[in-house]
Amino acid sequence: MARILIVEDDDSVRSFTARALAAAGHSVDTAEDGEVGLDRITAHSGGYDLVLSDIRMPVMDGIEMAKKAAGAYPGLKILLMTGYAEQRERAAELSAIVLDVVQKPFSLAEIRQGVARAIA
For residue 68, is pLDDT > 90? Predict the structure, then answer.
């Protein structure tokens, strides 16, 4: 299956999402903020099939991380997630580098379907 990086500052959401995607057969790495996420992407030379990132995080938000990651690794697939309407609007201008924005909270089925569409 796919190699996925989950970037999420909320421990419970990060853990829930990682377990759900690992149970679906994916190889999953995690990071607690955009800066750590970007470090992981760089350490793996952009070698993830998908980066699934929250938008609103401390240190570096998901939008800034997505811009930097896409600049360094143009083929990298990025899926953002948020529970805030205004963050969805901010992400809308990134359609050239972000595949979609997943609305939180989401169910296991929703996140698995979103990931399946993104890596197809």
Answer: yes
